[in-house]
Write a structure and sequence with these properties.
The complex is a heterodimer of chains A (234) and B (267).
Chain A: E1 5-14, E2 17-27, E3 32-36, H1 43-51, E4 58-63, E5 69-73, H2 84-94, H3 100-110, H4 126-138, E6 144-148, H5 156-172, E7 176-180, H6 184-190, E8 193-198, E9 201-206, H7 211-214, H8 220-229
Parallel strand pairs in A: 3-7, 3-8, 5-6, 6-7
Antiparallel strand pairs in A: 1-2, 1-4, 8-9
Chain B: H1 3-17, H2 21-48, H3 55-85, H4 89-93, H5 99-127, H6 140-165, H7 170-173, H8 176-184, H9 195-202, H10 205-217, H11 224-255
Classes of the chains: A alpha/beta (234), B mainly alpha (267).
């Protein structure tokens, strides 16, 4: 299968510490892959290397079309001192979006931001800011979408809407999604495949609905806790 | 350099300026205060000195050019600080925006903001204090260009410093012009400086501008080589500034500084 993202033997060392230690995986078109693991497992480091803001110590990252990659992360809000429209216009120029007015109208409608178009991003609620970040992430109709805890700090209703948007995005087109989350119910609902990362290595990989049973756990959350606490027992 | 992406960086500054009095006012407020203060001082000096020496053309002209240089440098650094303060590096540098698009945008923003300050100063100095730039002749344009290029160069170096040391290090940036001024001979000839300070002055493009400016006011014709030396040095500093910024950015990407900029984790 053609891959939107192919990561081979990826490594990142910070001094003597290996934050990412020989990670290999791929994400295909229309696929949502969950990158799971406890805090400090190496998820954000991996995503940072794919985004190009962190240089790998070794390994290879192949992206089908870097200009059609985009991201949203809970730790990267858009500037709060610009309005929704201003933010999207600036990133529309940066990502080379054609027919911006049309794309803006589509995204404002899709992410329910029409009434906030002239509101400064810093005045939006957490949920609205997340929707704005997702609208930015969708500006260039990405072929590869990286989402680092996109539903963190959202209430269940908004989180459900966001999940539906992302699932719809993957189902609709050729876009591939790499998703990190600590919410195992969410991961089970959204992801086609998950990778369990611990101490910078992938310990497990597979269908989130089948993995728990295969490893003698009742739920994905139980499996997550086992990976986090006793990775060697698996 | 991609013009659309460069424009995006400029547009961001325009959006921030639009409707923000606290951003627009400093573009001309401080330089206006400076011109008023030095304008009256030079007027007073002209009235008490019987030498026929034009303090307006030397001192007020020097203040105007020095303030222009500072506005150019701060035009670059302030635009950069806006991204520091709003933690926008991740969004920018994880996008197709290159560091050259980004730097180009900062420079273009500085051209726009420093032009506002320059226009305000020229207007005030000319209308109120009778400073005529006809005194300097067409050499005034190269003077401005040298100070502009050196201001951009220092601005780029200052942004590299803040990128390397973290948000709190912006306080290193503000005093840079004040540290350079005594060496640059803004208000006095370089010859009055001690020998070691004269050596430093020779390495600073503004020193050539202010020496030439004083020579013209004294009735001498402007020698070509000091202007060429100043221009060559300013371009060399610009190249050095870009090289330092590029190296600093690479270092920041290698160490994870960009990804965790606000943590100031890499020293």
């Amino acid at each position: 299968m053609e891959k939107m993202l192919l990561v081979s033997e990826l490594r990142k060392n910070f001094g003597a510490v290996a934050a990412v230690d020989g990670v290999t995986f791929g994400v295909g078109p229309g696929e949502i892959v969950g990158l799971l693991g406890p805090n400090g497992a190496g998820k954000t480091t991996t995503i940072s290397m794919i985004l190009g803001i962190l240089e790998p110590s070794g390994g290879q990252i192949v992206i089908e079309d870097r200009s059609r990659m985009n991201f949203a992360a809970v730790y990267a809000p858009l500037p709060g001192n610009l309005t929704v429209t201003e933010n999207l216009r600036i990133f529309g120029l940066i990502y080379g979006v054609e027919d911006f007015p049309k794309r803006l109208a589509e995204l404002l409608k899709q992410f329910d931001l029409e009434k906030y178009r002239n509101t400064k991003a810093g005045l939006l609620s957490s949920g609205e800011q997340t929707r704005l970040c997702l609208a930015k992430a969708m500006l260039n109709k990405p072929r590869l979408l990286l989402l680092d805890e996109p539903t963190a700090s959202l209430d269940p209703a908004v989180a459900r809407e966001i999940r539906a948007e992302i699932k719809d995005f993957a189902a609709r087109g050729q876009g591939a999604v790499l998703w990190t989350s600590h919410n195992m119910h969410e991961v089970e609902e959204v992801c086609d495949r998950v990778l369990f990362l611990s101490h910078g290595k992938i310990l497990l990989e597979g269908d989130p609905k089948m993995l728990p049973e295969r490893h003698g756990r009742k739920t994905l959350e139980d499996l997550f806790v086992a990976v986090a606490r006793e990775p060697l027992s698996l | 350099m991609n013009p659309k992406r460069l424009y995006a960086v400029v547009l961001r500054q325009f959006y921030l300026m639009r409707g923000s009095l606290s951003r627009v006012l400093p573009l001309f407020a401080w330089v206006t205060v400076d011109i008023v203060l030095w304008g009256f001082l030079t007027r007073y000096l002209n009235s008490v000195a019987s030498t026929g020496f034009s303090f307006v053309a030397t001192l007020l002209g020097a203040v105007l050019l020095w303030d222009f240089f500072m506005r150019v440098m701060q035009g670059v650094t302030m635009a950069f600080f806006e991204d520091v303060w709003s933690r926008n590096f991740l969004n920018f540098f994880a996008s197709p925006l290159t560091i050259w698009d980004y730097l180009g945008g900062l420079v273009a923003s500085s051209i726009a903001t420093s032009s506002v300050g320059l226009a305000a100063m020229l207007l005030l100095a000319g209308l109120v204090f009778g400073l005529s730039f006809a005194v300097y002749g067409t050499i005034f344009i190269p003077f401005l260009m040298i100070l502009f290029v050196f201001g951009i160069a220092l601005g780029v170096m200052a942004t590299a410093l803040v990128l390397r040391l973290g948000p709190a290090s912006e306080w290193f940036v503000w005093p840079i012009p004040a540290l350079i001024a005594p060496f640059a001979g803004v208000f006095y000839p370089v010859s009055v400086l001690p020998r070691w300070m004269q050596v430093v002055a020779r390495a600073l493009p503004p020193a050539y501008v202010f020496e030439s400016m004083r020579a013209i006011v004294m009735g001498h014709s402007a020698a070509r080589w000091p202007v060429l030396a100043g221009a060559g040095l300013a371009l060399a500093y610009l190249g050095l500034g870009c090289w330092i910024f590029e190296r600093t950015y690479r270092y920041a990407v290698r160490t994870g500084l960009i990804a965790r900029y606000s943590a100031e984790s890499v020293n």
